[in-house]
């Protein structure tokens, strides 16, 4: 084979991954009732996360226009606020709300991520288009349309994550939020396959954000708005492709020297385990009980079970042994001072210490006021985190997708608790029957904390009926949640 001529200006055919995404978004018909049902719960859960985030000023300060006073009358509504924004900035705001507390859904494989992050872009564009249609006498998008686009965004992000580890090259998983949101919002705006391909090529040319803000010693709150930032960029690419007819870059991935593979992925092409369908939405993991980084969810459940035996004996503890998956060791095993909320909710020792001591783990438990309790850091210093290779094996098994952890407490008098092990958390597909009622309670409680009781009852009545909810125009749905 002759060497590639980097001087040649001959325009190549689009890279196959770009084409595959365009074909899937434009042509694939979703016929999985389970996927639609799960997507409906995902939507409610994401709005619950948005409501819960409103208690935190550091989130709220991000939710308005880029500059004060830049109001767009009749613009996209941001849940639980009075803001009316253009769809680009609204995508950032809604994406930030959903992601802020690390309490929305999760996908774990070679890459990690939170597919409902894409709702920032999807809801923003859907609301924009629906308000525009209603004003012009057209047909608005419905909630059912939103669910369909969400299933496809979940699928794109999740299928890329199965075999391709962006964290191994130092890039943050929000690169896949930008990818998936770019693809589906381009279609939502009326773009065809060529325009989807163009928009997606721009997404790859953006390269990726570094994971610096997720890891010691730099962990910080950017991780809470990084997905919103990806949504914002995605909607920009979609608008450029559809409304401005920008030029695409067909070998954005494979171009020698200058393409994404050579620049950012060590020269490797992407690998795929399965074709796009509805697998990811059907198997997505919900964070229902605890706002905790997902690799620690079962560790928190273990600690909650041990609280009754341990809570009154904290000063008698000699050591605590936590067994987790390889990914858990690599991401959230953290020692030393924890500087802020974002540091704490990505530290498995902190997330185990709080329930052992208090018998709870809430978003407020990451605040400085709780972290100041000297018992937490003292207990962290007595913890050992080790990889359990079976947990790692089950984590990668496509038939399991477990996220196992175990916790055992040893006392100074030589006694110990039993080793409590949990393979998969309440948000796992295998625990749907147990988890969905808890998810709905999370949704209701979050609404009651932000909205008048009579309005909450109205919202609950609508969302309790799948048929009524699916048929609702998106702009009317969004108005239900605005101040």
Automatic annotation (TrEMBL):
Q: Which reaction does this enzyme catalyse, per its entry?
A: (2S,3S)-2-methylcitrate = 2-methyl-cis-aconitate + H2O
What EC number is given for this enzyme?
Answer: 4.2.1.79
Pathway(s) the chain acts in = Organic acid metabolism; propanoate degradation
Q: What class of enzyme is it?
A: lyase
Query: Any idea where the MmgE/PrpD C-terminal domain is?
Result: 290-460
All copies of the MmgE/PrpD N-terminal domain together span 20-272
InterPro entries linked? 2Me_IsoCit_deHydtase_PrpD (IPR012705), MmgE/PrpD_sf (IPR036148), MmgE/PrpD_sf_1 (IPR042183), MmgE/PrpD_sf_2 (IPR042188), MmgE_PrpD (IPR005656), MmgE_PrpD_C (IPR045337), MmgE_PrpD_N (IPR045336)
| Keywords from the UniProt entry | Lyase, Tricarboxylic acid cycle
**From the UniProt record, which GO molecular function terms apply?**
2-methylcitrate dehydratase activity; aconitate hydratase activity
Q: What protein family is recorded?
A: Belongs to the PrpD family.
Can you say what this protein is called? 2-methylcitrate dehydratase
Which organism does this sequence originate in?
Luteibacter flocculans
């Amino acid at each position: 084979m002759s060497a590639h001529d980097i001087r040649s200006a001959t325009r190549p055919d689009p890279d196959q991954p770009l084409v595959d995404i365009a074909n899937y978004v434009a042509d694939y018909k979703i016929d999985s009732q389970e996927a639609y049902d799960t997507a409906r719960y995902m939507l409610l859960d994401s709005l619950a996360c948005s409501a819960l985030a409103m208690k935190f000023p550091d989130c709220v300060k991000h939710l308005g226009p880029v500059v004060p006073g830049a109001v767009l009358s009749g613009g996209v509504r941001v849940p639980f606020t009075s803001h009316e924004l253009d769809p680009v900035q609204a995508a950032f705001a809604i994406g930030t709300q959903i992601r802020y507390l690390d309490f929305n859904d999760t996908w774990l494989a070679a890459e990690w991520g939170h597919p409902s992050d894409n709702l920032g872009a999807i809801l923003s564009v859907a609301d924009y288009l629906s308000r525009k249609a209603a004003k012009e006498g057209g047909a608005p998008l419905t909630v059912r349309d939103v669910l369909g686009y969400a299933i496809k965004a979940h699928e794109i992000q999740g299928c890329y994550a199965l075999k391709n580890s962006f964290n191994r090259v130092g890039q943050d998983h929000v690169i896949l939020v930008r990818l998936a949101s770019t693809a589906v919002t381009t279609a939502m705006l009326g773009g065809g396959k060529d325009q989807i391909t163009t928009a997606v090529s721009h997404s790859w040319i953006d390269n990726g954000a570094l994971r610096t803000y997720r890891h010691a010693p730099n962990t910080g709150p950017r991780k809470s708005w990084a997905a919103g930032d990806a949504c914002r960029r995605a909607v920009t690419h979609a608008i450029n492709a559809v409304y401005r007819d920008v030029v695409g870059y067909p070998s954005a991935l494979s171009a020698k020297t200058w393409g994404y593979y050579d620049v950012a992925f060590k020269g490797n092409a992407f690998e795929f385990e399965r074709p796009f369908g509805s697998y990811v939405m059907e198997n997505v993991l919900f964070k229902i009980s605890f706002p905790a980084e997902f690799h620690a969810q079962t560790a928190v459940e273990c600690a909650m079970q041990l609280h009754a035996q341990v809570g009154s004996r904290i000063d008698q503890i000699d050591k605590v042994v936590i067994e987790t998956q390889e990914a858990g060791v690599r991401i959230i095993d953290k020692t030393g001072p924890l500087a802020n909320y974002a540091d704490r909710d990505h530290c498995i020792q902190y997330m185990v210490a709080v329930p052992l001591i208090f018998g709870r783990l809430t978003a407020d438990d990451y605040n400085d006021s709780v972290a100041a309790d000297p018992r937490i850091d003292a207990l962290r210093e007595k913890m050992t985190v080790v990889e359990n290779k079976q947990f790692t094996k089950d984590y990668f098994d496509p038939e399991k997708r477990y996220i196992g952890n175990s916790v055992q407490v040893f006392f100074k008098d030589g006694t110990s608790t039993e080793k409590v092990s949990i393979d998969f958390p309440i948000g796992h597909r295998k625990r749907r029957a147990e988890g969905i009622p808890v998810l709905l309670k999370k949704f209701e409680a979050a609404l009651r904390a932000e909205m008048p009781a009579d309005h909450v009852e109205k919202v609950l009545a609508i969302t309790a009926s799948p048929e009524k909810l699916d048929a609702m125009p998106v702009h009317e749905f969004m108005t239900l949640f605005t101040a």
